[in-house]
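Duplicate of #3305? Posting structure anyway:
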């Protein structure tokens, strides 16, 4: 009952100066709204990256060929051609815990169908590549082990390639010419959209790696090897065994650098989401400055209020109010201001995040935790910045307060 009375007195005092109360809460409203919106944008970006990493498949280990250094410049992973088909076969044969191995080569080429042409990425993969990537087909079927052994002229294509080459026609069974070589389209990939790096994953043609090596690229080296471990708990163990096996096969002596790079899915996800996490923290920290400014505004107004109501405080004390009653009254006013500002700020932040998502096509993710934390933080700002003015009011001498003009 006492708490209800104190809150009622606090609200009555705030209503006496409506405009001042509204202006005081603006700092909290803007601060909480900015925090909710900025953290929502950062969390949305992080969730999008994690979803893209998940599109690689489950329990995936990527092995990249080494890089070439020319005139002091590194050309990047996969350029040295240090991985061979025999390496992939050895991994599948000798390492327990490996369920899928897909040798990989890739290039970009001009392709043509009828009077249409398109410049796209060519991927040479093993027959189980789509299972590893968990990438189903919309139509048709994938190529087989027999196609891989015979380097047959078959391929599956992404939605972007299908639209550019065939328009509204059914691509299955159609001919696409790559390097002047006719390939039969046997499957159409389910659309996946943009990758982590912003590239179109549907702008691709996938064929047996043997076909790509012999008929398109003309190479005997692999760019990469995709491996799937049986479970997430075996990722680290399988990764170490692959590293040891390849070092042995490539005759790399102790102390020498590897001519390949092995990364598991967890490492890739950690690296890819690190930037998003830093961005989220940075955006939240910058937006939190507004909360501090709003808290300073509350302290300033409460100090003014104490000065204006000194005689009122003296009268309350004269009729029996204790110092703690005065402390609670002014502290309640500060907490009420900050809490109301926090509630309005949360609404503003959610609306702003949804508006940005709709207008600018930015991914946003508003979590219940961020809303609860923002509200509690706004209330804490009221307690922190309202305590000093409240304490100052509680310590006023009743006699001096009554004589104050």
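Output from current build:
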């Amino acid at each position: 009952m006492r708490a209800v009375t104190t809150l009622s007195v606090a609200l009555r005092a705030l209503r006496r100066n409506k405009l001042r109360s509204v202006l005081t809460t603006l700092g909290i409203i803007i601060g909480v709204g900015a925090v909710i919106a900025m953290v929502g944008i950062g969390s949305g970006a992080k969730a999008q990256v994690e979803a893209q990493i998940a599109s690689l498949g489950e329990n995936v280990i990527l092995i990249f060929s080494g890089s070439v250094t020319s005139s002091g410049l590194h050309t990047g992973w996969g350029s040295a051609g240090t991985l061979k088909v025999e390496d992939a076969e050895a991994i599948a044969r000798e390492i327990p815990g490996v369920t899928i191995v897909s040798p990989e080569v890739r290039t970009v080429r001009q392709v043509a169908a009828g009077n249409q042409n398109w410049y796209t990425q060519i991927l040479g993969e093993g027959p189980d590549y789509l299972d590893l990537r968990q990438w189903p087909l919309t139509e048709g079927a994938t190529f087989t082990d027999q196609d891989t052994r015979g380097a047959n002229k078959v391929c599956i294509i992404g939605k972007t390639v299908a639209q550019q080459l065939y328009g509204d026609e059914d691509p299955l069974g159609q001919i696409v010419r790559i390097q002047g070589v006719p390939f039969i389209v046997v499957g159409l990939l389910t659309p996946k959209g943009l990758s982590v790096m912003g590239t179109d994953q549907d702008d691709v043609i996938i064929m047996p790696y043997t076909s790509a090596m012999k008929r398109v690229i003309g190479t005997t080296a692999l760019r990469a090897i995709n491996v799937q471990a049986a479970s997430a708990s075996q990722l680290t163990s399988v990764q170490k065994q692959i590293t040891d096996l390849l070092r042995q096969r490539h005759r790399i002596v102790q102390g020498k650098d590897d001519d390949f790079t092995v990364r598991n899915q967890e490492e890739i996800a950690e690296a890819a989401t690190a930037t998003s996490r830093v961005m989220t923290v940075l955006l939240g920290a910058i937006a939190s400055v507004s909360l501090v400014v709003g808290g300073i505004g509350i302290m300033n107004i409460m100090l003014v209020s104490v000065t204006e109501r000194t005689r009122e405080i003296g009268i309350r004390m004269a009729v029996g109010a204790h110092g703690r009653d005065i402390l609670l009254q002014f502290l309640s006013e500060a907490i009420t201001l900050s809490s109301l500002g926090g509630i309005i700020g949360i609404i503003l932040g959610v609306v702003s995040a949804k508006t940005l998502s709709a207008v600018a096509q930015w991914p946003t993710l508003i979590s219940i935790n961020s809303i609860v934390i923002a509200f509690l933080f706004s209330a804490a700002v009221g307690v922190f910045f309202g305590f000093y003015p409240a304490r100052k009011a509680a310590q006023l001498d009743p006699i001096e307060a009554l004589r104050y003009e």
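Confirmed duplicate; merging threads. The radius of gyration is 33 Å. The chain is about 55% helix and 20% strand.
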